[in-house]
Every structure is written in C-alpha cells, then in structure tokens.
Design brief:
Length: 273
C-alpha cells in the first residue's frame, strides 16, 4: 500500500502538471471509486474546475480547485496515477481518466479497486480529517512531546500504535518497521511503556525513515509507480522490511519476521530488544 513517501512523491510530480490547468473532461469508469455517490455526478462536478493546488494529508492526495471544491484521492492498496500525452498511459485496470486543457491526461488505475475519490468543499476538510487522522509526522509541529502524548497509556504494541492513522498520519507497514529499527525498539513493546529517551529516538527514526523514502521516490514492491511511470528505489535500501533471514546491517544478527497487529513485521532480535 502506498504510504506517506509514495503519496508525497505522487503529489510533487503531479503538482506542476495540474496547477493552473482545467479539467476539460472527466470519465469515471468504476462506480466503486465514488460510492455511494453516482460516478456521473462526481464527474459532472469536476468538469470545468481549475486546479489551484495539490496537497497531501497522511495518505490522501488533495486536489484543490479555485472554486473552493476539493477532490480527495486515496490510493489504498494498488491505486496509481499516471500523467501522459496522446493517450500513452496504460489501458489496463483504468478506473478514471481526466483530460486537462493542455491536451494531456491523468489516468487512475487500480487493480484491487479499493481506492476512493471524494469531492468536498474546502471548509469540510478539517472535520473530515480530524475524525480520521492524527499527527502529520513531517510537519514542523510534530514533536517528541506530541508523539509521547499520543502513545501514553497505550497497551497495544508500538508497531500497531504507529499504524493507527489517528496516531500518525501516513505511516504504514514499511516505514513503521524501518523507523523502529532506526530507534532500536522492539515492535512488540507496549507503546505506553516507552520512556522519554525512547520516544525521542523513535520520533527521530520516524522522520528519518520517511525522509529517506521521499528522497528515493518511495518503494516499488509491486504496483506503485510515479506518475511518469518510473519505479521508486527505497526497496533497495530497506534496513529490515522484507529481509527475514538476512544479516542486520548494524549488528549482523539475522532479521526475523513476526506478526504484530495482524501485519507482517520485520525486526532485528539483536538491536531491537
């Protein structure tokens, strides 16, 4: 599933291609993308809208229009957005196509069909996100103290707490494992048992793991691609994720795999005690 670094890469790539351009035509080919709203109704709302900005909140892409409407796109497991000219984008698993006023297309593909498109007014965004998302881990306001407050008293394993989007927005399975390795914290530890020093190193580990992912344009394990069709390279630099049996890059002990909160979890039994 695309996480914060992948979604931020998509946002940064699409922003210069969308801002200032108008949606000339919108075709939504899958009713699941907008349910329970009729896809024809959503398409009609978007036609003629001019893009003012492309933002991100957690794993959501936010396309802001000059009219005050916003389009929220969540890629879920296998959603991808491609920008192309002359109909050059892939035709398989296409769920929506937007034709821009410069003649280019933005194509939304989704193999598993879990992604969503939702049109809201800008003044509805705060209420929508406040019910679903917690701290934004790359914002200047994200502090160790704020993280400590979110984890205080939590009996759930720290890995599960990090995956809770109401705790941290945008952190998923890959970057939670990578952050905990950087912090030398066992993913099975109860979140509320971390002391102040551990919270500080975890805070730093979260930021460094996410920043590394963004710098490498995300991780391509299967479906994820950038809007120009290229792959990310973060998968070539994982410290623990997917590396069970391989030596830890810090201490040499074999990486182990377990399950935490129902998710496959990789950690070093030597470093993360």
């Amino acid at each position: 599933m695309p996480e914060l670094p992948e979604v931020e890469t998509v946002r940064a790539s699409l922003e210069p291609k969308l801002v200032g351009h108008r949606f000339e035509a919108v075709e939504i080919l899958d009713s699941r993308l907008t349910r329970p709203v009729d896809p024809a109704e959503v398409a009609a709302e978007l036609v003629g809208e001019c893009v003012a900005a492309v933002d991100r909140r957690g794993k959501y892409l936010i396309v802001r229009f000059e009219s005050g409407l916003v389009l929220l796109i969540h890629l879920r497991m296998t959603g991808t957005l491609a920008h192309s000219r002359n109909g050059a984008a892939s035709k398989s698993h296409v769920r929506a196509v937007v034709r821009l006023d410069d003649g280019s297309d933005v194509t939304y593909r989704d193999v598993r069909r879990f992604g969503t498109w939702l049109v809201l007014r800008a003044d509805e965004l705060d209420a929508y996100f406040s019910a679903r998302l917690g701290l934004e881990p790359l914002e200047p306001g994200f502090s160790a103290a704020g993280l400590a407050e979110r984890l205080a008293g939590r009996r759930a394993p720290v890995k599960a707490a990090l995956l809770d989007q109401r705790t941290l927005a945008g952190v998923g399975n890959i970057y939670a494992d990578e952050a905990l390795w950087r912090a030398r914290i066992d993913p099975r530890r109860p979140a509320g048992q971390l002391d102040a020093r551990e919270i500080r190193v975890l805070h730093r580990g979260i930021r460094r793991a996410l920043e590394a992912g963004i710098a490498r344009q995300g991780a391509t394990l299967r479906d994820y691609r950038t809007p120009d069709g290229s792959s990310g390279s973060m998968q070539n630099e994982f410290k623990v994720y997917g590396r069970d049996g391989e030596p830890c890059l810090r201490c040499g002990r074999p990486i182990e795999k377990t399950r935490v909160g129902g998710r496959g979890t990789w950690f070093c039994p030597g470093c993360q005690r």
